[in-house]
Specification:
Helix content: 25-40%
Shape: globular
Binding site for UDP-N-acetyl-alpha-D-muramoyl-L-alanyl-D-glutamate: 31, 154-155, 181, 187, 189
Domain Mur ligase central: 110-305
Motif (Meso-diaminopimelate recognition motif): 403-406
Structural class: alpha/beta
Radius of gyration: 24 Å
Oligomer: single chain
Binding site for ATP: 112-118
Bound molecules: ligand UAG, adenosine-5'-triphosphate, 2,6-diaminopimelic acid, magnesium ion
Organism: Mariniflexile gromovii
Largest sheet: 11 strands, mixed
Distance between the termini: 61 Å
Amino acid sequence: MIALKDILYKVTINAVAGSTSVGVAAIDFDSRNIKSGYAFVAIKGTVSDGHKFIDVAVKQGAVAVICEEMPEKLSEGVTYIEVDNSSKALAFMAANFYGNPSENLKLVGVTGTNGKTTVASLLYQLFKKAGYKVGLLSTVKIMVDNTEYKATHTTPDSLTINKYLDYMNTEGVEFCFMEVSSHGIHQYRTEGLRFEGGIFTNLTHDHLDYHNTFAEYRDVKKSFFDALPEKAFTLVNVDDKNGLVMLQNTKARKFTYALKGYADYKSQILENQFGGLLLKINDAEVWTRLIGNFNAYNILAIYATAELLGLEKVEILRLISELESVSGRFQYVISTNKITAIVDYAHTPDALKNVLETINSIRTKNEELITVVGCGGDRDKTKRPKMGHIATALSTKVIFTSDNPRSEEPEAILKDIEKGVEPQNYKKALTITDRLQAIKTACQLAQPNDIILIAGKGHETYQEIKGERFDFDDFKIVKDFLNQFNK
Ligand SMILES: CC(=O)N[C@H]1[C@@H](OP(=O)(O)OP(=O)(O)OC[C@H]2O[C@@H](n3ccc(=O)[nH]c3=O)[C@H](O)[C@@H]2O)O[C@H](CO)[C@@H](O)[C@@H]1O[C@H](C)C(=O)N[C@@H](C)C(=O)N[C@H](CCC(=O)O)C(=O)O
Ligand SMILES: Nc1ncnc2c1ncn2[C@@H]1O[C@H](COP(=O)(O)OP(=O)(O)OP(=O)(O)O)[C@@H](O)[C@H]1O
Ligand SMILES: N[C@H](CCC[C@H](N)C(=O)O)C(=O)O
Ligand SMILES: [Mg+2]
C-alpha cells in the first residue's frame, strides 16, 4: 500500500475531490482489472473512453479515480483527481509506484520505422555475451535477463514497462534495451522514463493510418529525442534525411552514424554475401554473420551504442563477430549443399520489396530465388494484389500460401493475391494453401546455391486458422525439411 499523494509526483493536477492520503494497492487503466483498493486511471482511447467506466471501476473497489473530466456524481469515500492528460498521469504514477525503476539501470530506446527489433535484440545479445545482466522490451519478446515473457506490443503501456523495469531492478539488471514505437511515444507510454540514450534508425512512410501526415509522424519521433536529458546520448543515422531533424532540439549529447555521409561513426561494406558481411567500422575490420546491407547500418548502430555505454572497442568487435541473426528478422540457415533459407517478418508490400531487393543485391543471376508468401486474413485487403505483384516480379519462383487466415477462407485470400500477378509472371507462380506443404515444396525444388525466402510470419510460433492457433514455426520447419532431404 502506498499513499496516493506519493505517486502523484510530476502529475499536472487541475482539481482534487477527497483525500490524497488514501492508500493505493495498485494502479490500472482498464475497469475490467480493477479490484478493491486500486486507483483507476480513465483514458480517452481510440475506440472507447475510460471515463464511461468510472462507475464500474468504483463498484469494483477503486478508491481513487484519475480523470480528465470530473464525473457529475462523485461517490463517497473515493478520491477524484482531475488531470490535464490521463495517459501522461498514468506514466508518472506508474514510475512513482514502482520507485522509478528506469533510474536504477541504463535504459536505451531504439526508434525508427525499420530495424528497432533487430538493433534492440542484438544489443541485448551483445551485452549478455559481454557478461552483463540485461533486459529487453521488444516486439518479439520481453527478457528480464534470462527469463522470457510474452510481448503484446512493440512498446507496452507505461504500467507494464515500469512493472518489467522493476523486475529488472530486482534481478540486478544493468542495461535495458527497448523499442520505442511512434504509437508508444504518442500515447505517453515512455513518459517519465529516464533514458541513458536514444537511437534513431530511419524513417519511411508507415503508420499513416494512425498519424495523419508524415510530418506529424516525424515530429512524434522527434519529441522522443527532445525529451532526453543532457547526460543522455542521441545516436542518429544521418544517411536518412530525417536523422539531423531528430537532433534539432535535443539537450542530449549528439552522435551520428552513416555509411554514405560524414558522421562520428562510419562504416563501409567490404564484402556482402549470404555467409555474412565484412565491414570496416572507423579504422577496424569486422566480420558479422548477419546479412543484407541494412544490417551494416544495424551493426554500426550497435557498435556505436556499445562504445557510448563504455565497452572497449576491441571487445565490441569480437562480440559483433559472434552475434546471431534475430528471430524472424532476415534469420537464415545454410544447408549442407548450400541452399540459403531466409525467414523474414515482411508482411507488407514495402517490407517484402525491401527484403527481395536486398536478397537480389547479394544473389548472382545463376541462383533461383524461391519465395513462399501469403497475407493475413481480417487485415488490410488492398495489400494482397500488391504483394502478389512484388513477389512474382522480384523472385524467380513463387509459392503463394496461407499466412494467418484468421476468420477468412484461405482460398479467397489467395485469389486476391493472385490478382496482382502480371501475365508475363504467371508461369513463375503456384499456389499451395497449406503452409507446411508450401515450405516443403520450396525445399524440394531448391538446388544447391538457390535461395528460399519465407516471408510474413517471422518470429511467430503459431498459425491462426478459424479462430484456432496451431503450433507453427517457419524457421524450425524449413530447417527440418532441408535436413530431411539431406540438403
Ligand atoms: C490504437 C492503439 O494504439 N490502441 C492502444 C490503446 O488503446 P485505445 O486507446 O484504443 O483503447 P480503447 O479501447 O479506446 O479504450 C480506452 C480506455 O478505456 C478502457 N476501458 C475499455 C473498456 C472497458 O470495459 N473498460 C475500460 O476501462 C481501456 O482500458 C482504455 O484505457 O491503448 C491500449 C493500452 O495501452 C493499447 O493496448 C492499444 O493498443 C492496441 C491493442 C494496438 O493494436 N496498438 C498497436 C497499433 C500499437 O500500439 N502498435 C505499436 C507498434 C506499431 C509498429 O511499429 O508496428 C506498438 O508499440 O505495439
Ligand atoms: N536498418 C534497417 N533498415 C531497413 N530495413 C531493415 C533494417 N533493419 C531491419 N530491416 C528489415 O525491416 C523489417 C523490420 O525489421 P525490424 O523488425 O528489426 O524492425 P522494427 O522497427 O522493429 O519493426 P516493427 O515496427 O514491425 O516492430 C524486416 O523485414 C528487416 O529485415
Ligand atoms: N501486427 C500485425 C502483424 C501481421 C503479421 C502477419 N503474419 C499476419 O498475420 O497478417 C497484425 O496482426 O496485423
Ligand atoms: Mg519491432
